[in-house]
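New here. Invent one.

***
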Amino acid sequence: MVNLNKLNTLLNNFIDSINMVEATILMTKEGYIITSIVKDLGEESIGGVTQIVRYISDVITFDPALSEERGIKELSTPEKLFIFRQVDPKIMFCVICNPLINGKIAKAYSEFVAKKIEQLLEDKDIPLEIPKMEPDEKEKEKGKEYVFKICVLGDPGVGKTTSIIQFAQSRFESEYKSTIGVSIIKNDLNIDGDTIHLQIWDIAGQERWAGMRRVYYAGSLGALLLYDVTRVQSFDNLEKWVNEFQTYTSSENPLLMIGNKIDLVQIRKISKEDGEKKASEFGIPYLETSAKTAENINRAYEELARSLIRKISEE
């Protein structure tokens, strides 16, 4: 089994090293997404990952000869440039670029990264750095570097999106707008001198997106599990979210249960004691937050990141 942390780090370094690369996806012949790294998506592009995955599933074909030839294939549309490289008989590496990108450079970098992916699939210990197109003038000493894809889960309206916005942009949005399938936000943390790149997948809670959530979970290493302390049903549905996440990822992936909207003291219905008891039943940590006041929001992501680092160190 490929080390997802190393793979995500490699793909994140790739995206950071070359302008106009918008996403990378590693998928199986059957259409299962092993992992994906996507640049920050604006509001107009929310749900674009779904379209990309469906598009790739429709147009790519697995050819035994392609894995032997190690050839790079490309497909251009007015909106995107797709680059495909079969890294073994059953796995395809896909790079999605802005159509204005220099195609030769994009293909050269894609081939370079594809070879590193092959080595990771063979469980080889390799450097994960990708040379940047331009020298970084602000290069500075730093500790270890991690890339974690995490999910934020829970019923519609529990405050997943507003909590993420508060963490990433230090602001609160009072006007609720339901997530269209998935929204992806990147933010960095510095913990004990180490840099943690978080790719946060805001998973829509509506049932109409249930069929696509399996795709979104792929490659996730941990999750924040939210409920609204003023809504009993969102609390009762937590077990469904735990089971779904662990089914499509791993029961060993860290979870952090969060009681959100604690600023709504007068209409609160779920006590802190009830929340702690439920989290204890799941065998996971518990924390209470307010996306409106920002109470414990940063702490939630820091605690999950620390859990992920501990898990890696124990492997």
Summary: The CA atoms of residues 149 and 294 lie 22 Å apart.
